[in-house]
Write a structure and sequence with these properties.
Layout: H1 39-57, E1 74-77, E2 82-85, E3 88-90, H2 96-116, H3 119-124, H4 126-142, H5 145-153, H6 158-183, H7 189-198, H8 203-223, H9 225-231, H10 234-241, E4 247-251, H11 253-256, H12 263-268, H13 281-285, H14 305-317, E5 324-328, H15 329-339, H16 374-396, E6 400-406, E7 413-414, E8 420-430, E9 436-443, E10 449-452, E11 462-467, E12 471-481, E13 490-499, E14 504-513
Antiparallel strand pairs: 1-2, 2-3, 4-5, 6-8, 7-8, 8-12, 9-11, 9-13, 10-12, 13-14
Length: 519
């Protein structure tokens, strides 16, 4: 067990410390985060591996949809205006499914933020994930915090040049792989990969890779924390999502203050002393370069690496973990009232402990049930209802549709025998990757019959037409009604389409126009 003075004190100063807070437009101070170890750091490694694996590997997954559809599991087929996601196929007119997923993502973000703070920012945000990846490269090549600081402050030598060139070259490769993986979502991945290296891919593919390479390299390697602080709107929105029962990374100054590296001397002098030994380990590991001991800050992404660093120091000192921890504002305020004797004095950590040094029973501790409150249930209900609604709509949707457009000019034609003819453009949508034979039937409009332009289909009230897989078939259809059957200038009737094999059907109500004199 170590004494306070035996804990290494890191020379780390928060970039926005209350004592040295800079103007908004001050020059950036470089941050050299120290590698952390602990439960939260391991969790971040797992999340990074999963998210990067999903992003880079998904375009290469195959899914057999038969001979008439692509076999890429996830594909945004812009050319044919289709979105394939495993067994789901989305047409342009079904974009409301995508809109619904975006709404679910928004409600889910509200749910997560209201319960566990900026967990999205700290673990799964692309900016956080790629910065972590870039830091892995940086530490591997240049060393940990002290070595990187020394290298940065030192003169330019051949060694420094080689290290910097190696680092930036790998960053550019990661950026290129990021852009390359993105375009694979919009075309068959193996085919596009061959075209890229052969130089025969579309220019937009090379432009997209170049743009995403530049942005990934710039945001993940050069700007890093500045993206979260100055560019991202979420830090400014999150305050509206939090309440006194939301979990946030918190420095528990009710047990940490007054901080001192010479606890024995301070105690011998009869003065109170907290658990914080002012080692700055929490500042050194922070990728945003802030000091969590200054309280909640816009820059904090709640990655919890400061918790790992502080817990490691507490373990060395033989003290309880949790000097920095996930805590709710209500628990923090209750413990501060206890440590300040109801607010009548400055923080005295002895007030939260018993004579044997253990925490008092009156100290509030977090329990998982505290985050399950009405607000949480409302968000969960909204999220679930939207998801169930989308799922129900997806499972019950028709894969056969008909749309009809009446000729605008002329509205009708009077034939030589006195009968009236109207023209229509009938659009048949076969929304499955299999060929179909669609039966088109006219219902209503007594005595009328249909004829298809440009085909050998005989005139009648019904006809069958083949439709290719996953295609829209357009037909020019004339509807003729004898003069003695016409009643009124405008009558409605129905185009009914049906697939006899699957029993799917759809209907469209159209209007038949006639002249005044025909009545």
């Amino acid at each position: 067990m170590l004494d306070n003075t035996q804990v290494e004190r890191l020379e780390a100063e928060a970039v926005n410390s209350a004592k040295v807070r800079q103007p908004m437009y001050a020059a950036r101070k470089k941050i050299f985060p120290k590698r952390a170890s602990g439960g939260f750091r391991r969790f971040k490694w797992i999340v990074m591996a999963i998210t990067l694996g999903i992003y880079y590997l998904t375009p290469w997954l195959r899914w057999d949809r038969g001979p008439f559809a692509p076999d890429q599991a996830v594909l945004l087929d812009v050319a044919n205006r289709r979105f394939y996601f495993f067994f789901i196929e989305i047409w342009p007119q079904e974009f409301y499914y995508v809109a619904g997923l975006l709404v679910m993502a928004g409600v889910g973000l509200f749910l997560i933020t209201s319960t566990v703070g900026r967990a999205w920012c700290g673990y799964t945000c692309p900016q956080t994930v790629w910065v972590d990846l870039f830091l892995v490269v940086e530490r591997t090549i240049e060393g940990d915090r002290n070595a990187r600081m020394k290298l940065d402050a030192g003169p330019w030598t051949s060694r420094k040049l080689v290290l910097r060139l190696s680092k930036h070259a790998i960053w550019l490769v990661i950026g290129a792989l990021t852009g390359g993986a993105w375009i694979f979502y919009f075309a068959d991945a193996p085919t596009l990969l061959g075209e890229l290296f052969a130089g025969t891919a579309a220019p937009v593919a090379y432009i997209t890779v170049a743009v995403l390479t530049a942005t990934t390299y710039t945001f993940g390697g050069l700007m890093r924390e500045q993206v979260c602080t100055y560019m991202c709107p979420w830090p400014r929105i999150q305050a509206a999502m939090l309440d006194e029962s939301s979990l946030t990374v918190t420095y528990n100054d009710w047990r940490g203050e007054p901080r001192s590296r010479h606890a024995k001397k301070v105690l011998a002098a009869g003065q109170p002393v907290g658990d914080c030994v002012d080692c700055n380990a929490c500042v050194a590991v922070c990728p945003m370069g802030i000091d969590i001991r200054d309280g909640q800050q816009l820059e904090c992404i709640t990655c919890a690496l400061c918790i790992d660093a502080c817990d490691g120091v507490m373990d060395k000192l033989g003290r309880e973990r949790g000097l920095i921890s996930y805590a709710t504002l209500s628990d923090y305020n209750a413990n501060m009232m206890l440590a300040t004797a109801g607010g009548s004095s400055s923080v005295n950590p002895s007030l939260v402990r018993t004579d044997d040094g253990l925490f008092s029973d009156r100290v509030a501790h977090f329990h998982i049930r505290k985050i399950f409150r009405p607000r949480t249930y409302v968000y969960m209900a909204m999220w679930s209802l939207i998801g169930l609604g989308l799922l129900y709509s997806l499972m019950t949707r028709d894969r056969l549709e008909v749309n009809v457009l009446h000729d605008r000019n002329p509205q009708f034609v009077t034939l030589s025998d006195g009968s009236i003819r109207n023209g229509y453009t009938v659009k048949l949508l076969n929304m499955i990757p299999e060929p179909r034979t669609i039966v088109v039937t006219m219902q209503g409009l007594h005595g009328a019959e249909m004829s298809v332009v440009g085909g050998d289909i005989p005139a009648g009230r019904s006809f069958a037409v083949p439709v290719e897989p996953d295609r829209l078939k357009m037909l020019k259809v004339f509807v003729r009604q004898p003069a003695d059957q016409i009643q009124g200038t405008a009558r409605t009737f129905t185009f009914r389409v049906e697939d006899k094999a699957s029993f799917e059907s759809d209907e469209y109500t159209a209007t038949f126009n006639a002249p005044e004199t025909a009545r």
